[in-house]
Specification:
The complex is a heterodimer of chains A (about 110) and B (about 250).
Chain A (H helix, E strand, L loop, with lengths): L1 H7 L3 H21 L8 H12 L16 H32 L5 H5 L3
Chain B lengths: L1 H13 L1 H14 L13 H28 L4 H14 L4 E2 L5 E2 L4 H8 L1 H19 L7 H23 L5 H27 L6 H38 L1 H6 L6
Antiparallel strand pairs in B: 1-2
Helix pairs in contact in B: 1-2, 3-6, 3-7, 4-5, 4-6, 5-6, 5-7, 5-8, 6-7, 7-8, 8-9
The chains are: A mainly alpha (about 110), B mainly alpha (about 250).
Chain lengths: ~110, ~250
C-alpha cells in the first residue's frame, strides 16, 4: 500500500518544475506583448455582440459594483486569500494528524530484520 | 529600455507572488467580465439556462446532504474543492494573445465529487462574483453555471472515469482539468452565439467569432489549470489519502 501510494505521488522536484511552468506560462505573454494592458477576453466578447447587433442594451445592471479598480482588486485578492486559507488549513491539519498518529514510518519498514 | 528589461526579468525571479500581483494589476487597467455579463443574455435565454441548471443544483444539494450524513470525514474536502475553484477563478492570468483570462478550478471537485456536487460549488463561486464583484451576473447565473459548473465538470468527470487505470494518474488529472477549462469557454461561446446569431451566417458564424476570441487566450490557461490541478491532487494524495479512498478515488 505504502509503495503503491508513493509510486503515484510526484517528487517535490517535479512539483517545483510544474509550478515553474505555470509561472512561465503567465510571464512569457508579458514579454511578448510589452504594450498590452491584458484586458479580459470578454470585454472583446462585448464588442462582438454590439457588432452583430448594435441595439443590444444590458437589461439588468449589477446590484453592487465595486467603486473602482482598487476595490475590485481588493475583492479579488480576498477571494483568492479565503480559498488559499481553506486549502492551507486542510493540508496543514492533515499533515499534523498524520504526524500525531503513530504509523509505520519509512525508517520502520526499512529497518533490517 | 535597459531598465525596463531588467525590471521584467526580475519579475521572473519573484515567481508566484509576482504572478498573483501582476494578474491583479492587469484587472486595474480594465475591469472586465470573465463570464457572460449581467443583463447581456435576452430574458428568454437567461430563463432557459436556469431551467437547465436547476435540476443539477437540486441533485447536487441532495448528494451533498447525503455525503455529509454518510461520510462526514469528507466535509472538509468538500470545502477544499470549493476553495480551489474560488482561488483559481480569482486569478486573471495574462495569456499569449495579450489579453487575460482565468482558470475555473472545477476539475478537482468533479474528480472528487462528480459533476452534480460541482454544479453547486461552481454556482456558489459564480454567485459571490456576481454579487460582490459585478463579475458575471445574477440574470446570467444560470448560463454561467451551465458552462463553468456543469459542462466543464461533466467533461472532467467523463475523462476521469474513462481514463482511470488506463493512463498515469497525473495525465488523467491533467487532461480532465485542462479540457474542463477549454470546454467551459466553448460552451460560453455556444451560449453567446445562440443568443446573438450572426444576421448572415447565423449561429455557426457567430459561434466561430466568439470562440476565436476565447480559444487562443484559453489554451495556455487550460494548460496552467491542468498543471495546478495535478499539483493539488498530488498534495491531497500525500496528506488525505484516507478521505480520497472513502470517496472511491482510485489510485489514492
Amino acid at each position: 500500500m505504502q509503495n503503491e501510494q508513493s509510486s503515484q505521488t510526484l517528487s517535490s522536484g517535479t512539483v517545483w518544475l510544474l509550478l515553474g511552468i505555470v509561472v512561465l506560462l503567465a510571464v512569457v505573454p508579458l514579454l511578448l506583448h510589452p504594450e498590452s494592458e491584458f484586458g479580459g477576453a470578454d470585454g472583446q466578447a462585448e464588442e462582438v455582440i454590439t457588432a452583430i447587433n448594435p441595439d443590444v442594451e444590458p437589461w439588468f445592471e449589477p446590484l453592487l459594483e465595486p467603486p473602482g479598480g482598487e476595490t475590485e482588486s481588493l475583492l479579488f485578492a480576498l477571494q483568492a486569500a479565503i480559498g488559499a486559507g481553506v486549502i492551507g488549513y486542510f493540508l496543514g491539519l492533515k499533515r499534523g494528524e498524520a504526524r500525531s498518529v503513530p504509523r509505520p514510518t519509512e525508517r520502520d519498514t526499512k529497518s533490517p530484520g | 529600455m535597459n531598465v525596463r528589461r531588467r525590471f521584467r526579468w526580475s519579475q521572473v525571479g519573484w515567481g508566484v507572488p509576482a504572478l498573483l500581483l501582476l494578474s491583479v494589476q492587469t484587472t486595474w487597467a480594465r475591469p472586465t467580465e470573465m463570464h457572460i455579463m449581467e443583463g447581456f443574455l435576452p430574458p428568454g435565454w437567461a430563463i432557459f439556462w436556469f431551467v437547465v441548471a436547476i435540476p443539477f443544483w437540486i441533485i447536487g444539494f441532495r448528494q451533498i446532504a447525503g455525503l455529509i450524513a454518510e461520510k462526514p470525514e469528507t466535509r472538509l474536502l468538500l470545502g477544499v474543492a470549493g476553495a480551489f475553484s474560488f482561488v483559481l477563478s480569482a486569478l486573471k492570468i495574462p495569456s499569449v494573445t495579450g489579453s487575460s483570462s482565468h482558470p475555473t478550478g472545477t476539475g478537482l471537485g468533479a474528480i472528487l465529487f462528480g459533476p452534480f456536487v460541482m454544479s453547486v460549488l461552481g454556482g456558489i463561486v459564480l454567485l459571490f462574483q456576481a454579487l460582490l464583484l459585478a463579475h458575471g451576473g445574477l440574470t446570467t447565473l444560470g448560463a454561467n453555471t451551465v458552462s463553468m459548473g456543469i459542462v466543464g465538470p461533466l467533461v472532467a468527470w467523463g475523462i476521469w472515469k474513462g481514463m482511470q487505470g488506463k493512463a498515469p494518474l497525473w495525465l488523467t488529472v491533467f487532461l480532465a482539468a485542462a479540457m474542463a477549462n477549454l470546454l467551459t469557454y466553448v460552451m460560453t461561446s455556444v451560449q453567446l452565439a445562440l443568443a446573438y446569431p450572426d444576421p448572415i451566417g447565423g449561429f455557426a458564424a457567430s459561434f466561430a467569432e466568439f470562440a476565436t476570441i476565447f480559444a487562443i487566450t484559453q489554451i495556455p490557461l487550460a494548460v496552467s489549470e491542468g498543471i495546478l490541478t495535478v499539483i493539488i491532487v498530488n498534495a491531497l494524495m500525500g496528506t488525505a489519502s484516507n478521505e480520497l479512498r472513502t470517496l472511491g478515488v482510485q489510485g489514492a
